[in-house]
């Protein structure tokens, strides 16, 4: 089995390991061992949450009705005792349901972003980490103010498109002719609406254009000159192509023009596709992904990013995924939808990600990474490559990392 690396959400960690989960300032959750919720497991409220974990997307009343009658009575009685009630009346049901609902929504809102997977030089990894932290903070502030998951993922991705350290927007890699062609997509988990653009040029933020495709057309994807015409009709300004090209991108383009160059291998040495997933305070889920594609790709090449189910997927009933890695491999296994399929079958976000990434490696020899979130706010960042830069914001804390098992935690509002 391929060893996978990445960050698990410490509050919902289900790894078979019994190691303690480190938090900032050297503290550790001694009661939250991986694979169990030790001290919480005996409490009736947490016991019901554990029992109904697979139905967390249901309204609280539905979850209550689907619980076994004996369990309902025991839990309701326990709740009554906690509040010094002597009967099991309707008011106790109401209090109990309120507690369950509060517990289930305590993890919301949440946003998780990635800035690409591969083997990244240390100095570039440090700068990219700053970039994903900024993107996660941007999305989280929007969510905390009551903004939608769609608003959060689009703005988080736009922050990374504007950062030349990433392969998206400004900083995109060049095709074989030395030109920039970009792909982007968004998806709304409420109604499975999606919008995408492919092979677009001279657009500073393709993710904004992808959202316009979703909201202003009956189509899911527009490409090349058709996408450019649509952008002009929507008043989206075009920029000079030179403003999107960095010296680093030129250097890598020239290097890969050599006859013995391997663009696929070289691609894993630069920060790749950027993306974000989020759940807002209302429980709605969304994803967004954007990329400059593959180094020295053929003109007109389109990768996984604008393809629904490959470059991203969001469904309020299951969760959301945004991937990064070798686009052709991701398309062959429809990576994003494959992960959500495993989650539909009862796997956690982490387990589903590991299964899908392992399958992609074994079946098509593809490496990559993903950020995933479920309707409860449980999130994970997993990758089969050597590194992936990622950040997550939840409950006032900012988690981030690049290397295997790395998880640094600081306040979300730090340095803002």
UniProtKB/TrEMBL annotation:
EC number: 3.4.19.5, 3.5.1.1
Composition bias, Polar residues: 7-20
Pfam families xrefs: Asparaginase_2
Tagged with keyword Protease: yes
Sequence segments annotated as region (Disordered): 1-29
Membrane-spanning parts: 94-117
Catalytic activity of the protein: L-asparagine + H2O = L-aspartate + NH4(+); Cleavage of a beta-linked Asp residue from the N-terminus of a polypeptide
Keywords (A to Z) from UniProt: Autocatalytic cleavage, Hydrolase, Membrane, Protease, Transmembrane, Transmembrane helix
InterPro entries the UniProt entry points to: ASRGL1_meta, Ntn_hydrolases_N, Peptidase_T2
Family the UniProt entry places it in: Belongs to the Ntn-hydrolase family.
Protein name (Swiss-Prot/TrEMBL): Isoaspartyl peptidase/L-asparaginase
Organism encoding this protein: Cirrhinus molitorella
């Amino acid at each position: 089995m391929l060893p996978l690396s990445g960050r698990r959400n410490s509050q919902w960690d289900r790894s078979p390991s019994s190691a303690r989960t480190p938090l900032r300032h050297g503290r550790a959750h001694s009661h939250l061992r991986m694979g169990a919720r030790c001290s919480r497991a005996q409490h009736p409220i947490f016991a019901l949450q554990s029992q109904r974990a697979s139905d967390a997307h249901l309204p609280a009343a539905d979850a209550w009705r689907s619980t076994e009658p004996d369990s309902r009575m025991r839990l309701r009685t326990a709740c009554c005792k906690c509040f010094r009630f002597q009967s099991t009346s309707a008011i106790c049901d109401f209090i109990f349901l309120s507690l369950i609902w509060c517990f289930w929504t305590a993890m919301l809102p949440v946003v998780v972003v990635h800035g690409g997977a591969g083997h990244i030089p240390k100095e570039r990894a440090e700068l990219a980490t700053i970039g994903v932290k900024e993107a996660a903070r941007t999305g989280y502030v929007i969510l905390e103010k009551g903004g939608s998951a769609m608003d959060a993922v689009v703005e988080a991705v736009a922050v990374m498109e504007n950062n030349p350290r990433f392969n998206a927007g400004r900083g995109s890699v060049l095709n074989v002719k030395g030109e920039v062609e970009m792909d982007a997509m968004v998806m709304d988990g409420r109604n499975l609406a999606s919008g995408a653009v492919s092979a677009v040029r001279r657009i500073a933020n393709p993710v904004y254009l992808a959202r316009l495709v979703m909201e202003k057309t009956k189509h899911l994807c527009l490409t090349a000159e058709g996408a450019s015409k649509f952008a002009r009709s929507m008043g989206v300004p075009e920029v000079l192509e030179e403003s999107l090209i960095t010296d680093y991108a030129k250097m890598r383009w020239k290097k890969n023009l050599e006859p013995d160059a391997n663009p696929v291998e070289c691609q894993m040495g630069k920060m790749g596709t950027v993306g974000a997933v989020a759940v807002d305070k209302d429980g709605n889920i969304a994803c967004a992904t954007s990329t400059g594609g593959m180094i020295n790709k053929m003109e007109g090449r389109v990768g996984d990013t604008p393809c629904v189910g490959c470059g991203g997927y969001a469904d309020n009933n299951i969760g959301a995924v945004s991937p990064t890695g070798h686009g052709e491999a991701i398309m062959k296994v429809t990576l994003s939808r494959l992960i959500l399929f495993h989650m539909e079958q009862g796997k956690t976000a982490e387990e589903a990600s590991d299964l899908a990434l392992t399958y992609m490696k074994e079946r098509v020899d593809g490496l990559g990474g993903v950020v995933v979130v479920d309707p409860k706010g449980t999130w994970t960042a997993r990758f089969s490559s050597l590194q992936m830069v990622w950040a997550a914001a939840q409950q006032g804390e900012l988690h981030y990392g690049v290397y295997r098992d790395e998880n640094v935690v600081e306040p979300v509002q730090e340095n803002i």
